[in-house]
Amino acid sequence: MAARLIDGRAAAQEVRARVAQEVERFRAATGRAPGLATVLVGEDPASAVYVRSKGKATREAGMESVSHNLSADIGEAELLALVDQLNRDPAIDGILVQLPLPGHIDSAKVIAAIDPAKDVDGFHPINAGKLAIGAADALVPCTPFGCLYLLKQELGSLSGLDAVVIGRSNIVGKPMAMLLLGESCTVTIAHSRTKDLPAVVRRADIVVAAVGRPEMVKGDWLKSSATVIDVGINRVDAGEGKTRLVGDVAFDDAQKVAGAITPVPGGVGPMTIAMLLRNTLVAAHRREGLAEPAGL
Ligand SMILES: Nc1nc2c(c(=O)[nH]1)N[C@@H](CN(C=O)c1ccc(C(=O)N[C@@H](CCC(=O)O)C(=O)O)cc1)CN2
């Protein structure tokens, strides 16, 4: 039987609609809207599309969107000065520096310069540490947070399930593993040096593929009825000068085996932006000393 498709677009719409309702309440309580600043350095076309989508989604949710589009050759000191200015701006609740940054800029230094209370990407070491110790007030990276939302919607409780996360990045793999551990899963983080990866993946009730390699995870690596979350967004040649998007999972074969699976596009990607809005709303509530909206 073919796997159920996990519809990330629909789930993201639900989250965005709930955020928009809560923005109205926030506006009534404070007389202002939550504000998100995006910072884009350079002209990477995919990054430019993502930042535009984030700005549009922010406005559609009723929040203020401020975008800073900077030249690729901006110096690190100038970028740090902008972050400092945004940290001190009372109208800005969330700061997002789009990654990747050009090679001459130290991304870790820029991320560490963001006020952790405005770090709606959840990449600051303070927020990474809070997530690791299970602190309730961590701001959690948007992509893994979106994956967790989809998993809980699909499976309900995750307690006791075997989860394999393929990929160990600070942005997806590691925070994903922490979130799954927080849900009482038995978590394995696999990566390029893992021995016999297919055998490791075959044990899993939950597979999160975040490795950045087109269609690497094959259908016969999966336990039947596994829930598969594909974080990969890889543009590959589709012939005749065209390209198409594929994930890190070989979808056609995987869906014959899995219990449920996210498609690419239309799976995890839209959840990343929905969770960014959620984090901005939460950051704004905390900055105003208001109770956080329940259930988001
Ligand atoms: N500062 C950050 N930089 C980056 C992040 C991030 O969370 N914060 N994540 C990625 C890119 N990203 C958001 O920035 C992102 C990627 C993909 C999607 C998305 O909706 N994808 C669609 C397909 C879009 C397409 O056609 O190209 C989908 O999967 O359906 C949203 C956001 C790296 N940088």
Distance between the termini: 33 Å
Q: CATH homologous superfamily of the largest domain - what is it?
A: NAD(P)-binding Rossmann-like Domain
Q: And the CATH topology of the largest domain?
A: Rossmann fold
- CA radius of gyration is 19 Å
Strand order of the largest sheet: 1-11-8-7-5-6
Listing every helix as H and every strand as E from the N terminus to the C terminus, the arrangement reads EHEHEHEHHHEHEHEEEEHEH
Q: Quaternary arrangement of the chains shown?
A: single chain
Number of helices: 10
The parts where pLDDT drops under 50 for at least 5 residues are: none
What is the total domain count? 2
Task: Tell me which CATH architecture of the largest domain applies here.
Answer: 3-Layer(aba) Sandwich
Strand % is 15-25%
- Strand count: 11
Bound molecules: the ligand Nc1nc2c(c(=O)[nH]1)N[C@@H](CN(C=O)c1ccc(C(=O)N[C@@H](CCC(=O)O)C(=O)O)cc1)CN2
Helix content: 40-55%
What is the mean pLDDT? 98
Catalytic activity: (6R)-5,10-methenyltetrahydrofolate + H2O = (6R)-10-formyltetrahydrofolate + H(+); (6R)-5,10-methylene-5,6,7,8-tetrahydrofolate + NADP(+) = (6R)-5,10-methenyltetrahydrofolate + NADPH
Pfam families: THF_DHG_CYH, THF_DHG_CYH_C
Function: Catalyzes the oxidation of 5,10-methylenetetrahydrofolate to 5,10-methenyltetrahydrofolate and then the hydrolysis of 5,10-methenyltetrahydrofolate to 10-formyltetrahydrofolate.
Family: Belongs to the tetrahydrofolate dehydrogenase/cyclohydrolase family.
